[in-house]
Give the backbone structure.
Amino acid sequence: MFTIFPDEQALAKQLSQELYTSLAQQPKLSLGLATGSTMLPIYQELIQLHRTQPLDLTQLTTFNLDEYLGLSPDHPQSYNYFMHQHLFKYLPLTTEQTHLPQGLCTDVEAQCAAYRAKIAAVGGIDIQLLGIGSNGHIGFNEPLTPFDSITHIAHLTAKTRQDNSRFFTNQAEVPTRAITLGLSEISQAKKVYLVITGQHKATISAKLFASQVTETLPASILKQHSNAHIYLDAAAASQLPEEVQAQLLASKKILC
Ligand code: F6R
């Protein structure tokens, strides 16, 4: 289901409120988290909500989608560092509650298996937050990743490394590999929010809207999920068909 919000702030407010309500109703929630620019307003809203209406988060468990291979957790571009800087340090969460793949490890395959097992041990992911790459990736599942993939080592495409080079000094510094949850695990989450914001995501949003379910566009797997919510801001939705935008402007949700 696609929903359009006037801007990313309105989207972040709504989504964080929905997450917060779920947390209040189900304290023992297992929450799948993403990094990236798209998540920043959402995490800021969550932090603000917790400041004004603190919840008991002691039973919450979080699992991040991915991490670059080769970066230590204190590397400023690592996803471990991102999560600490933008969310975890503001919330009363212990290190036992928050899980991320580790970029420096000797046996990556064993780590993938252990990560899968940890998620299985809590009964899978209840709510998964996702952003999308300009090539349609979710997590680091690049185009043509099999839909039945599980946590694995992903080889990043040139496009993804180019997109993500904005966080590094130059593109050569962007790692070539990452650990990512697989598409099978992501799509087994009980509820999924895919968040797409900004004009630079307008082309991929329109492609996703029009697309069949196909491994060439990894995010299209969500179209067969019974509880997936695709939240766009107006800029990201600007290349959707005009009649669709008109309906969305009238605040109607579109099933697609
Ligand atoms: C990050 C992740 C990626 C990003 C995507 C969008 O943990 O899994 O799939 O969500 O690359 O990144 P931004 O939000 O920076 O455009």
